[in-house]
Amino acid sequence: MAFDLVIKNGLVILPGGEKNVDIGVKDGKIAAIGTDIDAGEARVTDAEGLIVSPGMIDAHVHISEPGGSIRDHWEGYDTGTRASAKGGVTSFIEMPLNQIPATVDEESINKKFAAGEDKLSVDVYSYGGLVPFNLEGGIQELDENGVVAYKAFVATAGDRAIEGDFMNVDDYSLYEGMRQIAKTGKILSIHAENGPITDKLGQLAQERGEKSLAAYVDSRPVFTEIEPIQKIILFARETGCRVHIVHVACAEGVDLINEAANDGVDITCETCTHYLYFYKEELDDIGPVVKCSPPIREKSRLEGMWERVFDGKVMFVTSDHSPCTPDLKDTDDAFKAWGGISGIQNNVDMLFDEAVQKRGMSLVQFSDIIATNVAARFELEGKGRIEVGYDADFVLIKGDSPYTVEKEELEYRNKISPYIGREIGAQVAGTILRGEEIYSLENGVSNVKIGKFYK
C-alpha cells in the first residue's frame, strides 16, 4: 500500500497497551499499524523518543465567535483552534455559550458555522443549548443540525441583559427539556450548582466586604454541587434522558454520580485539569485569572479527586477553556471578576506530567481520559483511538522535558492563563489532524486550516 504519511519509531498507545510500532496513514485515516512499515514515497515523521497518543478530544470548550460588539475581542476560532493544535487537541466539543447569539436553534447554529468558516485548525463538534425559551422546536432544530449533545445550567448562567445570551433552566424547563432530549438519544450535559444559594451566599459575602478568592470559594460550598446532582439523577430516572455532569470539583459529587450509574442511571461525569492541579490556599497569590465555577477547592481534596480519576469514576478530563479579555480579570474583587480559565493549550502536557510522570498512570488510561472515553460517550465516529480505520489524529508527547509556560508562547487572542510561570515536565512535540501536521515544536502551528465542523 502507498501511504501519505508514516510515523516511525514512536511508543504508540494502542487500545490494548503501548507498543513500539509504525503507523501508516492514507487519505486521513489510519491504514496500517505494524513494525518496519515501508514508507516508500510517503512523508515520514520520526517519533523517536516520543509517545504517540490519540489526539486529545476536549469535551468542554468555549469560543466567543460570533461575539457581536460585546465579545468580539474574546476568543475567536482562529486563535482558539491554533491554541488547541499547539496543546495537542485535535478535536473539541464547543459549548453553546459564550457566543452571541448562543447556540439554541437552527438560525444561531448556522451563524456559528458561518463565523468559523475557513478558520479552524482542528475539528469542532457542537453542543446545543437547553434554555427555557427553546422548548418549542429549538431542541429538535439543533438535533437536525448536527449537535452531538446539549448543555444546560442549573446554576446561574450568563448575562441576561445580553439579548440571545444563555439562561439557566428552571425545574420545569429542565424536566421538559430532558423529556425532549431523551427522544433524540443524545446526552444532556449539565453545570450542577445551586444558583439561588450560591448567588445569595456571594451577595452576603460582598455585603461584608469580602473580596478574596478564598471567600469566593467559601460562598460555593460542596453541598451546592451535591444538591443539584441529586435532582438531576431523579429527573434522569423519570425521563430516561442520558446525562453528563460537567466540571465536577468534589469527590462527593463523583461518588454520587457513580452510585447512580451503578443503579442503572445513564450518567457520567468529567473534571478539569485545574481541579487536579490548583488548590484554594494558593488562589489569592495567583489572582482572579484562576477564578472559575465550581470553584477550585482545598488542597486536602486534591488527592481524593485523583483517586477517583485513577479508579475510572471520572470518565474524562477537560479544559473548560473559558477565556475573556484581560480587563475582566483585572480587579481586586474576586466576586466581580469573570469566572473562567484559559487552559486548552496546557491540558495534554500538564495532565501527562501530573498523571503519568508524577503519579504513574498507565499510558492507556491517559489516552482514555483525554480521547477514547470522550469519543465513546458522545459517539464521535472514527475518533479517539489509534486503530485501523480511525482518523489519523495524534499528539506526540515528549516526556521528561520540563519547560516554563511563557505568556508570549500562548496562542490565545488574550494571552492570560493561570499556567503562566508554571513549570511543566512534558511537552507537546507535535500534533497531527487526519494525517496532516498542524503543529510541531520546531515549526510552530501550521497556517493551513484543515479543521472542519461536524454537522
From TrEMBL:
The modification N6-carboxylysine is found at residue 151. The keyword Zinc applies. Keywords: Hydrolase, Metal-binding, Purine metabolism, Zinc. It comes from the Bacteria. Zn(2+) 2 binds at residues 151, 191, 247. Homotetramer. This is Allantoinase. It comes from Jeotgalicoccus nanhaiensis.
